[in-house]
Amino acid sequence: MVLGGKLVLTKVPNKDISKRNILVHPPEPPMKVLFADPRDSVYIGRTKIFDVPFYWTHESLANPHIAVCGISGSGKSYFIKTFLLRASFVWDSNALILDWAGEYKNWVKMTGGKVVSLGRGSYLNLLDLGGMRPYDRIKQVMRTLELLTDIGNYPEQRRLTEQAIEKTYLENKFRMDSREQKDELGKPLTPPTLKDVVRILTEEAQMGSYEFPAELENAIYRLKQFTKSGEDFFAQQSTVSLDDIVTSGLVDLDLVGLPDETSRALAALTMLQFIKERMRLAGSIEGARKRGLRLIVVLDEAWKIGKDNNSDAVMIVREGRKYNFGMIIASQNPTDISEAIFSNVGTTFILKVKFERFLDYLQGSLNFSNYMREEISRLGVGQAAVNLSMTTPTPYPSTFLLQKIEGEEPSKEYFLELKEVLTETQRRDISVARSVSFLKEDVRRRLRQFGLGDDKVEEITKMFEKNNRRLDVVSFVITLERDGVARRNISDFLKDSGLDDITIINIFGKVDLKKSGGVGREISQVVLEE
């Protein structure tokens, strides 16, 4: 410091030094990281602080895999659709959506893509090899069964099942350690099915020579849940061509026709295993890496396989680049995605997040600053924080903010006005939100999930448009109930939009008041207990 015209050395505490901006790097990577070659990257949007265009490329990242989290209506599916379209344009990438809730199939049809509906006339044989050796495929099948059932707790049942699967391959003249499986005339062998496995186990039970008959019967019972008539989606010869799935541009594998979460997870894991093997073989045959990504696989709300550290989804992310395809794993609830995924993916997009415990989970996984946490907690619809995992150490922050995800079409927001359900105290408090917002397409998607037909969806859409994209929340709820939407579904929708329980109770109180013709009475406050 300068004292009496002389330069004098003085001690300065670290906390004072940290306040001086000259020593603090701005919370954004430099332009050379953000602004990649537009001919070989995917444009996402502009950064919040310096307004720099962000073009995504995985060239300098740990891997090409992406995690996306954000509440319903935050713009998550809008981002995924935009990314797939631009990747197709820039790299001619193929895309496969493992569609848990059937929410992408209409969009895929509209864009000229292909929809394959398992459980509705399409089948996937669990014992297909997909270019693998039978020994390797057996290991994958057993690992999948352990993940989705409790067979891992019963070593003898596991052994019996594994032996029976091996026997079915041998009966069908498969060579257990070979990838080439052809008969004497050079024609491809037909793989066995789970029905063959059940038959072998049943024959052994009928012989009555096995010393633990209860274990054998339980092994049979466990597999029969996949072979019952009408539920044998994985126990018939495949009608789904893996070659078509991964080379036909945009493909939606619609899983909504399968009966339960276990069946959907079984289909998704099986497809991931086949794709992983195909990409690995193709990579070794072609040698040098191609420009961009040949295939992008989307897992949206696939909590059963995104959360378990032993699932193929987690294993693919951990093993990085070597499979030469990218995977997008998305969820409303960050805790439904394994921490190992957040810690290993090349990129994480964080959209609007509602609960503090979710922010705790994300901050613990990605290690961003408290400043960034505060900014993330205030994100609006379509805004995002981006975390990049680089291959080499960097002197700049790995997490930065985007003004907005810029899609192929302007993202149109709809607003539910809350003024009618706020108390006088809340109305005077400028920190209390007067409305909640979500993207138009997310509203339409949720309305379809509620079972509303296209005519009803259009009717409600026009209500928003007529009122400058704004609708009071009470009128919105009354309309949904009139159209037969259950109150519990409406409540879940409002919670996903960021409203707390007290506000939702007040909304339904106002709804009941209007429907009964009552006016002018105050709504009593309700205190929720655990």
What does this structure look like?
By secondary structure, the chain is an alpha/beta fold. It folds into three domains: 26-117 and 250-257 and 275-405, Rossmann fold; 134-224, no CATH class; 413-515, no CATH class. It has 21 helices and 16 strands. The strands form three sheets. The protein has an eleven-stranded mixed β-sheet. A three-stranded mixed β-sheet has the order 15-14-16. The chain has a two-stranded antiparallel ribbon with strand order 1-2. The longest helix has 26 residues, at 261-286. It starts with a strand and ends in a 15-residue tail after the last helix. Residues 284-289 and 520-530 have low confidence and may be disordered.
Kindly list the characteristics that best describe this protein.
530 residues, Rossmann fold, 11-stranded mixed beta sheet, single chain, 21 helices, 3-stranded mixed beta sheet, disordered C terminus, globular, 42% helix, alpha/beta
Largest sheet: 11 strands, mixed
Whole-number tally of structural domains: 3
Q: How many DSSP H or I helices?
A: 21
Shape: globular
